[in-house]
C-alpha cells in the first residue's frame, strides 16, 4: 500500500511538472540603420569585422532574402504595423497614431516593453507610450537631434530623451553606449517577467564619425558639422555596431536568459553612399534610397539558443511586414482580422515546422508617403529572381541586379509570361488603396 501511495504521488508530481506553464519568450529586436547585407561577414562581406553577428548566425538562422523599404521611415512604419506603406505611410518621419503596433499588443499581453535608439515616428513626447513602450531612450523624439549651431548630436555628446527627461550634458559620452547600457539595465530589472526590447540603432547612419573604439576618438567633440562626415569611419561604425550587439548578447548570457530569448537582427535599408563594400572580389556600392536590391536587401539573423537549429540558412522571402505577425506568434498573441495585416509569419520556420511561405513581396514606396506631390512613387512585386514594376518593367534580378535591362514581352519565356500575368493581378489587387 505504501508503494502504491508513493507511485501515485510520483505520477502526480510528474503531471504537475508536465503542466507547468512555460513562460513566453523574451524578444530582443535589433535593427541597424543604413546597413545592407553586404556588410556582414556571414553574408560574405569582407570589408569589416562582425564577429558577434557571425556567431549569432552560426548558432542560429540566417535569411538570405529579407527585403526592407529603400529608406528609413517607410521601413519603420511597415515593420511596426505589419501593413503595406500604401495603406498607412502618410509623411516622412511620422506614424499615424491611429495605427496599431506590435508593441501595443505585447504590452497588453503583459510584457515589459522598451524602445531605444532612433525614433523618427512623430515629434510628440507622448508617442512612445502611446505605441506601447513602457520605457524609452531615444534620439530625435521631440528635438531635431542637432544643437543651436547645427552640429549633429546623435553620436558623441548626444542629445537623447529618456522617459521624458532631456539629456544634453556634453559629458564625453557616446549615444550607442548609453542606449546599450539602458537596454542591459532594463533586461536585468525585468528578468523575472517577459520583456520585449525594440532597438532601432542609431548606427551606422551618417555622419561617419569616430567611435569610442577608434584610434582618434575624441570625447570632447561636440558633433559633426556636416551631414555625411567622413566615410573612412564607416568600418569603425560597423565594428562598434557589432560590438554593441555582442554586449547585449553577453548580458543575456549573464542573466541566464538566452534559452528563453529570441534575438533578431536586421537593417532598415541598404548601405548609404559613398560607401563601397567588398564581398571577396565583388564591390557593392551602397544603394540607400534606390529601389534596386542594393537599396532593399538587408541582413536578417535570428537566434534562439536551444530552439533554432544552429547554422541554418533560409532562402525564404521575408518582407518587413512579416515581423509583426512573427513576433506575435512567438509570444502566443492572437491576431484579430481587423488589424488588416499584410505580413506573413515566419515563426514556424524558426522552430522547424511547416508553415505558409511567401511566393512574392509587394512593395509600395514613396519617401514622403504621398504628402509631397513631387516625391516619386514606385510599386513592384518580386521574388528572389524576378521583379515587376507598375509601368510594365520586368527584370531578372540574378542576371541583372542593377535593373538595366527590361525584359521585352517578346523575349519572355513561358514561365516568365505566367509569372508576369500573376503579378499584374497582384498589383491590381492593391489598386483600391490611395485612390
Overall description:
With 435 residues, the protein is α/β, with parallel strands linked by helices. It folds into 2 domains: 22-357, Alkaline Phosphatase, subunit A (3-Layer(aba) Sandwich), CATH 3.40.720.10; 365-429, no CATH class. It is 27% helix and 20% strand. It has 12 helices and 16 strands. The protein has helices at 2-18, 51-58, 72-81, 85-88, 102-108, 127-130, 175-189, 234-254, 293-296, 323-330, 347-350, 414-429, and strands at residues 26-32, 61-67, 112-118, 135-139, 160-162, 165-167, 195-200, 261-267, 276-279, 282-285, 297-303, 312-319, 361-365, 378-382, 386-389, 394-396. It has a 10-stranded mixed β-sheet with strand order 6-5-4-3-7-1-8-11-2-12, sandwiched between helices. It has a 4-stranded antiparallel β-sheet with strand order 13-14-15-16, covered by helices on one side. Helix 6 (127-130) links the parallel strand 3 and strand 4 (135-139). The longest helix is centred in the middle third of the chain and has 21 residues, at 234-254. The radius of gyration is 23 Å and the shape is globular. The termini are far apart. 46% of the residues are buried. The model is unreliable at 1-20 (pLDDT under 50).
Amino acid at each position: 500500500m505504501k508503494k502504491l501511495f508513493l507511485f501515485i504521488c510520483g505520477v502526480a508530481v510528474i503531471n504537475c511538472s508536465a503542466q507547468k506553464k512555460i513562460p513566453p519568450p523574451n524578444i530582443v529586436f535589433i535593427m541597424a540603420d543604413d546597413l545592407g547585407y553586404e556588410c556582414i561577414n556571414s553574408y560574405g562581406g569582407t570589408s569589416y569585422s562582425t564577429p558577434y553577428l557571425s556567431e549569432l548566425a552560426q548558432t542560429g538562422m540566417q535569411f538570405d532574402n529579407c527585403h526592407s523599404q529603400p529608406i528609413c521611415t517607410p521601413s519603420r512604419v511597415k515593420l511596426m504595423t505589419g501593413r503595406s506603406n500604401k495603406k498607412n505611410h502618410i509623411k516622412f518621419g511620422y506614424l499615424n497614431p491611429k495605427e496599431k503596433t506590435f508593441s501595443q499588443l505585447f504590452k497588453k499581453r503583459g510584457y515589459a516593453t522598451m524602445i531605444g535608439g532612433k525614433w523618427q515616428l512623430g515629434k510628440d513626447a507622448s508617442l512612445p507610450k502611446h505605441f506601447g513602450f513602457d520605457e524609452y531612450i531615444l534620439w530625435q523624439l521631440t528635438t531635431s537631434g542637432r544643437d543651436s549651431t547645427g552640429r549633429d548630436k546623435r553620436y558623441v555628446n548626444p542629445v537623447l530623451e529618456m522617459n521624458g527627461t532631456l539629456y544634453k550634458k556634453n559629458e564625453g559620452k557616446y549615444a550607442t553606449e548609453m542606449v546599450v547600457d539602458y537596454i542591459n539595465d532594463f533586461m536585468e530589472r525585468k528578468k523575472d517577467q517577459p520583456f520585449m526590447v525594440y532597438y532601432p540603432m542609431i548606427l551606422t547612419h551618417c555622419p561617419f564619425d569616430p567611435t569610442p573604439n577608434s584610434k582618434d576618438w575624441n570625447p570632447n567633440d561636440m558633433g559633426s558639422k556636416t551631414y555625411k562626415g567622413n566615410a573612412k569611419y564607416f568600418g569603425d561604425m560597423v565594428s562598434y555596431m557589432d560590438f554593441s550587439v555582442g554586449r547585449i548578447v553577453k548580458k543575456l548570457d549573464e542573466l541566464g536568459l538566452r534559452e528563453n530569448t529570441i534575438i533578431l537582427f536586421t537593417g532598415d535599408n541598404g548601405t548609404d553612399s559613398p560607401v563601397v563594400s567588398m564581398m571577396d572580389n565583388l564591390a557593392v556600392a551602397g544603394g540607400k534610397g534606390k529601389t534596386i536590391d542594393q537599396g532593399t536587401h538587408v541582413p536578417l539573423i535570428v537566434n534562439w539558443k536551444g530552439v533554432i537549429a544552429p547554422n541554418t540558412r533560409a532562402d525564404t522571402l521575408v518582407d518587413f511586414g512579416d515581423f509583426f505577425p512573427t513576433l506575435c506568434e512567438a509570444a502566443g498573441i492572437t491576431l484579430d482580422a481587423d488589424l488588416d495585416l499584410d505580413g506573413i509569419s515566419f515563426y514556424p520556420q524558426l522552430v522547424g515546422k511547416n508553415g505558409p511561405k511567401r511566393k512574392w513581396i509587394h512593395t509600395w514606396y514613396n519617401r514622403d508617403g504621398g504628402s509631397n506631390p513631387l516625391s516619386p512613387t514606385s510599386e513592384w512585386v518580386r521574388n528572389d529572381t524576378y521583379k515587376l514594376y507598375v509601368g510594365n518593367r520586368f527584370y531578372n534580378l540574378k542576371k541583372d541586379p542593377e535593373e538595366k535591362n527590361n525584359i521585352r514581352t517578346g523575349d519572355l519565356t513561358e514561365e516568365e509570361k505566367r509569372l508576369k500575368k500573376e503579378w499584374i493581378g497582384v498589383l491590381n489587387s492593391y489598386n483600391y488603396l490611395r485612390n
